[in-house]
Write a structure and sequence with these properties.
alpha/beta, Serine Threonine Protein Phosphatase 5, Tetratricopeptide repeat, Rossmann fold, six-stranded mixed β-sheet
Amino acid sequence: MPEVLDAAAVRGWCAAGLAALTAAREEIDAINVYPVADRDTGTNLVLTMRSVVDALGLESGIDGPGDAEPLADTVRAMARGALAGARGNSGVILSQLLRGIADVLADAAPGRGHVLARALQRATDLGYAAVDEPVEGTILTVARAAADAGARAAASCDDLAAVAQAAAAAGAAALARTRGQLAVLAAANVVDAGGRGLVVLLDALYAVVVGRPTDAPAESADRESADQPLAGPVCQPDGAGYAYEVQYLLDAGEPDVRLLTARLRELGDSLAVAGAEGTWNVHVHVDDVGAAVEAGIEAGRPHRIAVTRFADRDARVPPVPPVPASSAPHPGAPTGQGTGRSVVVIADQDGLSELFAAEDAVVLTGRAAEAPPIAELVDAVCGTGGREVIVLVTTPDAAGVAAAAADQARLRGRTVAVVPTRSAVQGLAALAVADRDRRFDDDVIAMTAAAGATRWAEVMRALGRAQTSAGVCEAGDVLGLIEDDVAVIGADVERVAAELLDRLLTGGGELVTVLTGAHADDGLGERLAARVHECWPAVETVVYRVGQLHRPVLLGVE
């Protein structure tokens, strides 16, 4: 029985918590009515905790080979695992709760009750901060009640078990009260599902501290039952709320995340953003999936994008309406658009037009690094003859023009979505997965996800002396940029490009795209491909020679 909250106790709690959540998963899923009755809160909590256990290297049971490792290393791994694996709104909030606990324990020696109390307080503060519009009667209410009770217990006794018991008992009592705090819970006669999951974890913590079986609840005369039977089938009226759940990991700075939060607030609800130190987990419910992912692309690098349509999850998928005869393509429309869907690409250089046109897209290029006029883009969208049109933007400067043109095209009866990217190689990745036989929304999601999963780099010459993130460069130096940030300064194009590839592939990848321009030596692309094959035999490589490309080399890694 641990008397202090050390690495072994934390690891034991995480393993026991996963086991307890797994046992309660179906029960928690069944009572999930808020914010959406999609019956997955228990599953999401289990998946989140599974990621924690994996990060800690625990296979099963409470004891593990790393119990002797420093407490700080253990809790930091716990927080990283939770953030990376957080699923759904409840999982994102749980990841913040665990991060708050990690913040306190990482900076403290293994402690007793007062350390646990401070950790619970910090966890609650971060949990509330992660949610754009906190609502009482949820997991947050349970967390606050547990933290306040833990603080009161620690004020009079520094016993770890006493604080853990007080927190678990107060959490259970707060959970029982959620039934009357939200109308949707009262109507279904259930408690909050996320709060129920947190009580399971608090009970598991108490059980580990006192050495009891994890299915035995904390003992308290004040404990209220939260497990009353449901009044009837749990459901949500058709059409309630937003249509999609969008979630992704995001590499971005804190100022950009603040702007992202403001943008997502305009698009939907159930917004939760968790993370720190440049890595974030973003969750939101929206109708416009493309706009939600686009906002992430504007803020940084979204990856592991997951989109769920609530109608699909509830097995209530409406039939796809037939294409009206009046929406058939005009005789002069590009080939391959028999489904009534077209793709219009905005490219920043003429030299790239042939690559995009080869994929059956209509291509517009800007003039002098500027986007084409709005009217020209509207005419292009409507002139394709497609009932549905995806506008693929391969330069950030054209995103505003594309959005304005899409609005005008919608007034002319077209269904239009904008898929923004920040580089031509991201655009190629998006176009490569386009499938006109898919539902329109699914096609937009797939293209946006492919673009977001593609890291990119480029090689260029410095025009003058400047201070960069890689040091001072002089006029004529070869600069290697990874996603607009100078990462390498050198004298040789091939060596700089090779170093960029090394850095990109260190993070993994399955396909490398190499574009070489007019200022690149003949055979450079093939030599870079040979290097990839030699160093990473499992990675495929495609090479394109683009005569009018302004930069010597463009690279993409998917």
